[in-house]
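Onboarding guide, step 5: your first structure request.
Type a short instruction followed by the sequence, for example:

Predict the 3D structure of this protein.
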Amino acid sequence: MKSNNRTSVKLKFNYRSLVAGLFIAGGVFQLVTPVLAAPAANTTISNTATASYTDPSTGTTLSATSNTVTVTVAEVAGIDVSALNTPGSAQPGGTLNYDFKITNTGNDPTRLVLPSTASITGTGAAGASISQIITAGADGVLGNADDQTIAVGGAPLLTGSIAANGIINVRVVLAIAANAAPGTVTVEYGKSVDPASTNQVYAANGALDIYTNDNTDPSTVPGEVAGAPVNGTREDSATLDGVIGNVAGVLNGTNGNAAATGDGTNNNTDFTNKAVAPTDSKPGSTANDPGVVTFTNTLSNTGNAPATFLLRPDAPGSTVPAGTTATITAGGTTGTFTWNGTAWTGTPVTVSVAPGTPVNYTVTVDLPAGTKLSTDLTTPGDLTSPTAAVVGGYAMPILAFVDSNNDGIAQVTEPQNLTIERTYLGYVAMYKEAQILETDGTTVVQAFTTDATALTGKLTPGRIVEYRISYKNISETAAATTGSSILNATNLQIVEDGTTGGNNWALDQDGNTIMDTVHVSGIDAGGTIVTTGTDPNITKYVDTISSLAPGASGKLDIRRKMGN
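The system replies with structure tokens like these:
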């Protein structure tokens, strides 16, 4: 019984060519060292018996010889189709090579009929199709320039004469569809009653058969014996198993957009920005205990079979304060993680995702008590410089990965993708400065500063104090992003009230019935200013900016003169 090599191997197969016979269309196939199962057809086998005996009276040895019987070996057809390689596995979009060795096991030269198609079965058969059938050239090696192509689905190939024990190597190439499901793909080349047997009686099965076709008489083929083989036409077939692999691919992105990007085409930098309201918005405050913020993200399986993804916060890129906790809920499973300042503790959450069926999951972020205002992460230069970099909030990357080796760790060779949750404890920063001008409104007595000592004693009757409030949306910008979630600030109102909240610039502190300072001007090119009071006795300015995009900034400038 011959082996049909039906073992599926999930490793890339390195093809090793075997020394084969010569194949020249219309020529003769011969092995360098033929090993025949029987003498060549028309070989004469002679049998003559001899004997010796002794004459006892004289002691003389005599001999005797029989007549000679001559037998001529009949022409016998024979064929064997067997596996020549292990196809291994291929991913969707790839190819699988099925190599077969076809041997003339008869005792006389013969031609062979090779089909232009093959049978494909198995759990992965629907995703495979024949793209090419080739036969090895004179060197017997498949994949060389001297290969001969059999047109797929065309007429079968009638070979030239093949010497007894000559060999033809044939490769059936399968193309694997890009959306192919994983599974075994079995190819039978030829179509016989039993692919595991050899040299079977030919039973016609149409275009799938591999069978012998005796050279026509009279023949000039060396060694060809006239007449048909005594056992008629013979056929054979063999099977080989290959595998379409299970490709796992993961996209982990923002709500409803698993393929979101945050930096050009980079889908590891997409983000969702959310804000939590501070209870104390004074600069430098440590009195805040931020509320919990909930994010919704979307997973997508880009593979060809259901896959299990693991989810956890990722340490690189985490800028949340120590003591932050995060809770991930996916598919009914929940995991809680804690940040100690350098690493996250907690067990990854598993979720099964089928191809083409996105799955949402939630992440809650709880920043600890004492968290700084996000606006305190800025410096005045971030607000006053038009080219200053945007200051990010408290970032927490969430990693989704396929744990191929079941070690719970995302190896660099395993499919994985990041999305970033970014929490802002306030995201519009303001920075106020003042300068002192002479009565002409042009000459600078003291340039803009926040230094009270520098400003002290320089505001005298008739001089002007100019307040400048720089403001900026410090959240991540939307430039070059696709699907990332940003934070716009709408209906931003900057209130300057000179009578409340510790302000006294619109009061009459000396009781002379005149405000300490009176209105000169109020300007904001990006906003609309509404005042309270009658000019010059303006007591309040409300500057409304309808929308302030991430990274956008502006300035409110108010001038007040000391005394009338």
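Each response can be followed by summary notes, for example: The CA atoms of residues 107 and 259 lie 65 Å apart.
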